[in-house]
Every structure is written in structure tokens, then in C-alpha cells.
Amino acid sequence: MREKTGQIWELMLVKANRVLRQAQIELDSALGKKREVVTRQNKIDTMLVEYSDTLNEILSRAHNKAEAAHYRQFIVQLQNLRQRGSEDIQVIEQFCKEARQKALSADQEKLKLQKLSQRSQAKITQRRKVKEVKDIDAQNLIQFNLNSPSQ
Model pTM? Predict the structure, then answer.
């Protein structure tokens, strides 16, 4: 029964490791998505600056009203994309926070199980040593009784 206790702790550790790995994968995925959205936001910001500069240049000279309207319309679309991107970042940051907390909890659970497993193994080892000492004492007593002169 005591050997099975050690095996149970090992199985629980394997499960805790699996949960931790899954939590870390989710966190890595969330961080990757966040990087992608931030990169996309940076590209949109760059495009906004470029198109705004171009629109200002067009407006500073004699221009075609349709051309200026197209630039304005495109700038509005970029601003809408930027707004959606900002909302996406907020959602992803919340997901990252939750995934980070989940990974931290899984890591703490794993550490707790490791300590409990080590404690269990130490108890099993101690019990074995006590049993071995008792067995040796019993053998020595039997040997002593066999070797002592009969009365």
C-alpha cells in the first residue's frame, strides 16, 4: 500500500506537469497574438502618418476634390481599423493576464505536489529503514538464542 502511495504522487505530478505545459502553451499563444496585433497596429500607425502627410500635401496645392476625398475616406478606414485593433489589444491583454495567472497557479500546484511527493517518499524510506532495523534486531536475537548455551 505504501508503494502505491508513492506511485499516486508520481501520477499526480505527471498530471500537474501536463496542466502546467498546457497553461504555458496558452500563455505563449496569447503573447504571440498580442505581438501580432501590436505589429499590425504599428503598421496602421505608419500608414496613417504616410497618408495624412500625403493628404496634407495634396491639400496644399491645387488638387482634385475626388482625390482628396479618397485619401480622407482611406484615413477614416485606417482609423477604424486602429480602433478595432486597440479593442483587440485590450481583449488579448485580459486573456494574457488570465493565462499568466493560470500558468502561475499550475506551477504552484506542481511545486506543492513535488513537496508532498518528496515528503511521502521520505516517510516511505524512513519506514523501510525502521523495518530493516527491526528485522536485523529480530535476526540477531534469534541468532543469539541459537548460539547461547542451553540452560
Answer: 0.70
